[in-house]
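Appendix B. One record, verbatim.
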Amino acid sequence: MKDYYQKSMRALQLAGMSERTQQCYTRSVRMLVDFYSKTPDKISEQELQDYFLHRKNNDKWAAATMRICYSGIKFFFINVLRREWHTLELIHAKREQTLPTVLSVKEVWTIINTVNTIQNKTYLTTVYSCGLRLHEALFLQVTDIDAQRLRIHVHRGKGAKDRYVPLPQATLHILRQYWITHRNPKWIFPRLGHGGNQGPTAQEPMSYTSVQGALRRVLKQLNVTKRISIHTLRHSYATHLLEAGVNIRRIQQYLGHSSLNSTMVYLHLTTQGHEHAYDIIDSLMKGDDHENK
């Protein structure tokens, strides 16, 4: 079973999983293999149970991390190893019901303008101004940019769903300025290499760790204490559109949400319209005034 990695990737691709999901699921299996120092086909159901309990109770993994762990290992054992274990039916990670962090427009641009490298500044600008997921922006290709219609074709999104998102004129200008620095024929954000000069011939985009590290350094520099990730920029984008009066159905379309319920969470993050609503409620609930009329 030495080729478990290739078999895992093959099964995930056949299932239509996104590149990001393929990487996360395969990493979950690799961590299990490293934990026991043996290939997955040699791992028993009891050992699998012990592993899950160790990660949950000893390592104190968060619910979101456990969910990826469960999903990746479950997919592999069912679809690659063909195991019919009760444990695989039993496992379930509770989804945390917490509202995401949202930044103000001023906070977003303060963070972006503090970034001191053009590739990371351009990347974060694109994530925020187009509401993209981390990997959607990383894997942007030159052919995805429709400059004439001012839109981006996202076809490596979550669930392998295609969509178009508006491309602000200012963001298009920034993307063009950055692309001129490397002129890679395929990637918008190519891997630059240690010397920073491999961009023109890079065969793959920047790494996840490079852009995440850039954001962490800026937050530390600004002494920001909020829990912020690159995905926070996407949350902020959606909230700012909602506050500006963009129809929530349009926002759902731009974000690539299958269900409107996923987009509705942003209604809880905006204060737009609350004062007007409070005035209406206060007026309606003045019982004494109505009785005297």
